[in-house]
Each structure stands twice: as structure tokens, then as C-alpha cells.
Amino acid sequence: MAVRSLPARGEFTAPANCTVAAALRAHLAGQSWSDLRSLCLSGKISVKGERELNPARRLAGGETVAWSLTAPDPRRMATRPEFSIVYEDGHLIVIEKPEGVSSVPYERKERGTALDLIREAWRKQGKRATATPLYTVHRIDKDTSGLLCFAKTKLAERGLHNVFKQHLAEREYLAVAHGQVRPSRIESHLIADRGDGLRGSTRRPHEGQHAVTHVEVIESLPAATVCRVRLETGRTHQIRIHLAEQGHPLVGETVYLRDHTRAGRSLLPSHRLLLHAATLGFNHPVTGERLHFASALPPSFEAELQRLRRR
Which of 89, 141, 143, 193 is catalytic? Predict the structure, then answer.
């Protein structure tokens, strides 16, 4: 039986000790695992009245599981905050990057990156979009929104490269993590493969990159915590890894969930990763002037935060 042949709506009581996908497969005989995962990821499944996007969530048993083929797909509903240029001079440019946009192309033909957004904005301003080079000096994750800086000259590139290499930039993020997070200083050594193909911390001496994250609690929610996170170092996925390894993956996280799901903990649904690069400060690489920028939470982040507060 194909997914399209299902009734538009239905519900059932979940059996004990199984995942959402397994409960669906037991009730909807003949459905493939991939079809059932697609139902979850497209926002068609709810558990106890709450949308459930994680097919691997473990159920205790007795929960009401429902499907609605007409439910809107959160991936299409998610609105992209408007791109903006925060600061620009002859040497550098600072932008507010929307979530869902790569900082730089990860594949040769990738389009719609932050670089493309900058050049598109220049075209609208009547500038020659390809006349000025853009040099990558730091990055934020594709699914993270917020402040991002590029150099426009080789002189600025060298200076900014030194700023970020020596961890001289001031960088603070706003994040929402599962559970009740405590203020902490998290320190570890991060490696590209912890043994399962994912980045993570290692206990092996003399391996990996030193990483330090400072976490401050801003607000406690019913099932999550709003945090201000300051980076002492800036490693790939550092905040996401450190909080996940503390038992508090970010809301909207899709990668660093192994320990959380193995422990049978449920995930809060979210249309986006709740991580925003809110503050960026550094000395201008050419003039030496102190620059400091702040970015408000975008509407997509605020909407998820308000929903979590009402939960």
C-alpha cells in the first residue's frame, strides 16, 4: 500500500517501547520505512497532538499517534529572513546570513550562497557585482543564521585571517537547547570522525583541535533552555557538538542526536535549527578601529521560540 493510498487522516494508540516509525509501520501494514520517514519529515505525523518530525523518537506506549496528509510541510512553510548588509567599506563586508544558506559553495555549482546574496545586493545597488573579490575569513553553518564577515581585499583577508586564527574575534550566539541547561565552560578536543562518521570530542591525548565554549542561561522553558553561547575558539559545529555531548542537543538539530535518541529522549519539533550568530566584534584589519555588530533574532527563530514558550 503506497502512502498516497492512505486515508487523508487517521490515528491510533502506539504500542509500548518502539519508535514513531516502527509504530506507524505496525499500524499501517505494507508501508516502507522510507515512506514513513517521509511522512514524519514532511510534518504529517503528530504524537499527543504535537507535530513530530523525528521518526526515531522512542515512544513509551499509549500515546495517540495521528497522521494528516493535508498538513503543511514545515520545510516549505519556513520563511527566510531578509538578507541585509550590516557594514561595508573598501576592505570588508559584514552581513546577516539567513538560515538555510551556505556561507560559501560546498559544491562547485552550488548557487544561492552568502556570496551570491552579496553580489545580488550589489547588482541592485548598481554596482559591478563581479568586479570586487570576496575572500572567506570565517563561516557559520548553513542552518545557522546571523552575522558573517568577508574580506574584499588581500590586505583585509590577511588581517582577518589572523584575527580568527588567534581567536581574537568576539562571537556570541543565541541558542535553544533541549532540557534544563546549566551555565558551564565546556572544553574538549574535536576530531572530524569520532568513529561513526560524525565530528565529536576525543579522549585520546594529543589528537584533535582544542575547543572551548562558554554557556550562559538566559531563560528556562518547559522543555528547553535559551542560552547565550560565547566561543573562545571557533571549530566546525563546535556549539552543536558541545551541547549535544552534554545531553542538550539544540532544538532543530538533525545530526548530533545519537546519545539523545539512544537514551529514549524525545525531540522538540522545529522548522529550523535554533542557533543564531548574534554578536561579532573585532579590530578592523586595516584601520585598527574597533568594530562591534549585533543581530536581532530573525522572525523564523522568534516564531519557534514563542511556540516553545507556549508548550
Answer: 141
